[in-house]
Amino acid sequence: MKLHYLLPLLALACAxxxxxxxxxxxxxxxxxxxPAGGPTDIVGRLxxxxxxxxxxxxxxxxxxxxxxxxxxxxxxxxAKPDGYSLVVGSPSALSISxxxxxxxxxxxxxxxxxxxxxxxxxxxxxxxxxxxxKTVKDTVALAKSRPGEFNFASGGNGTLSHLTMELFRxxxxxxxxxxxxxxxxxxxxxLLAGEMHLMFHILPLSVPFVRSNKLxxxxxxxxxxxxxxxxxxxxxxxxxxxFEVTTWYGILGPAGLPRDVVTRLNTxxxxxxxxxxxxKRLSDNGLDPSHGTPEALAQTVASELARWAVVVxxxxxxxx
Length: 320
Prior knowledge:
- Strands 1, 2, 3, 4, 5, 6, 7, 8, 9 and 10 form a ten-stranded mixed sheet that branches.
- By secondary structure, the protein is an alpha/beta fold.
- Helix 4 runs parallel beside helix 11.
- 45% of the residues lie in helices and 19% in strands.
């Protein structure tokens, strides 16, 4: 090959090497595809602070909620793959919404470069104290004895609380009335008031209500018992096979993110999450630190995408 053909390739290689050596040279924008104050926002702000301390650059949080977290996520999918535009990924945006909506502005696998997992948290099946149940067996038996009489609240059609309820229904054969709300907040309010009977509620937010006996915890969806509710068994311990549901949070960039940048970010995430002080901050917010490789995050996205596709199809869920 002639030298004048090689020069552009050499220039590109040098540019990429220089970029990797100097990265990050300016502030990073971390997209939180959800409103301020919610669980995804809390995770985003925590990890933004931790990541900034590790990489020596400010991490700016940008909130863009709506459409099952797809609006903000699509912004990052279309961004320049230079490492300065990242997004907090979760089941809602990458595993659930793509199975529910006919039109999705990105491909959950092909349009992103996984960087690494941050944390996980579970949900817990809770009941209003007026409902005479204490275990999964009790709940299933009562529901089967009076089909259609009991209602399940959720944060809305297609939310993880809804799909977890559908998974529970499919696993047990019970018939219950699904009552979707516009958010978990109003659903929780009506559950506390006794207008709703049951709900799959995010575990850390359930703890104050359970400890004050305003709600009764039946079973957690985590693989192991939560240290926040050590007396509450898991769904697996309660006899439901393969019933593990967690909300996971990870960092992703646009497709084509340079490998050196991914490695730099993943290493920084690992150091941040594994720090005892930061691990405690996550734990205090009901989150289990869960750092891993980019490949592990990619596998999680793909497997969860396939899993919820089966549930959505089996339950016949349609989102308008």
